[in-house]
User: Fold this.
Amino acid sequence: MIDHISVAVRDLDRAARFYQAVLGAIGYEKLVVRPRTVGFGKAYPEFWLNLRATMAPIDSDAGTHAALRVRTTELVDAFHAAALAAGGISEGAPGLRPQHGEGYYAAFVRDLDGNRIEAVTFLKAQE
Assistant:
């Protein structure tokens, strides 16, 4: 079981503002702020930003991919909208992804440093 994930960012303040908007849309809060790291979560820090000021920009084929499970399609939609409003790049608008499994509803974005972040929920099969 995964306890937390960390992503590298070149500008911690800028990334923290981006993720406060994006993760805030799905119920996360900024819980820990340290000189070189910021932690977001619901009850404890689950998603960390780590300052790597000298790292090269990430191209579209590299970087972290983190998928965050949410409860509803509305939260997937809100995540995607918040990311675009905060300067992220869409890598896939909210929608069903049958290639990933039945009922797989997700949205994909690139953050300001090129990390790929996903929000996903699973729809129940229609009877």
